[in-house]
Design brief:
alpha+beta; five-stranded antiparallel beta sheet; 29% strand
């Protein structure tokens, strides 16, 4: 693994409106890491999708629970863990089966978060144990960005 650069830990209450706060924090982190705009948007989208899934599915949309996000920067990668203490996804690997579509009208409006995450990130792992579920997502960086190379 590349040289560690930094680690950020965030926590939001399980309210969908708090996901926007999380998105803003991830945008700031992406700017600080000097990642290109497309990569920054894709990574933010993955974190926001994972947090939204935790709120909607692990907590059934109930407020008063915690969604924790940890971002770790290294010179060659960026990783995010989105964790909750709600219901588990026992068949996570079966979620987001590949689908084929012929026109944009065939793309489902919802239910694409895990597919987006799996297609965008280089490594995706889901773990559950001791009352805690974590989705860990890693994107390898082609070349260290100037901010990460320091």
């Amino acid at each position: 693994m590349g040289r560690p650069v930094g680690k950020l830990h965030l926590s939001i209450e399980s309210l969908l409106e708090n996901v926007a706060l999380l998105g803003n924090a991830i945008q700031g982190l992406m700017r600080a890491a000097s990642l290109d705009e497309t990569t920054a948007f894709q990574l933010e989208l993955c974190v926001v999708e994972a947090a939204t899934n935790a709120i909607r599915h692990a907590y059934d949309g109930a407020p008063g629970n915690e969604v924790e996000v940890t971002a770790e920067l290294a010179s060659d990668r960026i990783s995010f863990s989105v964790c909750d203490s709600g219901k588990t996804h026992p068949a996570f690997d079966e979620l987001a089966p590949p689908f084929e579509w012929q026109s944009i009208d065939q793309i489902p409006e919802g239910g694409m978060g895990i597919t987006i995450i799996k297609e965008t990130m280089d490594e995706v792992r889901y773990s559950s144990g001791q009352g805690r579920n974590c989705l860990t997502m890693t994107k390898f960086l082609a070349a260290p960005s100037p901010a990460l190379a320091r």
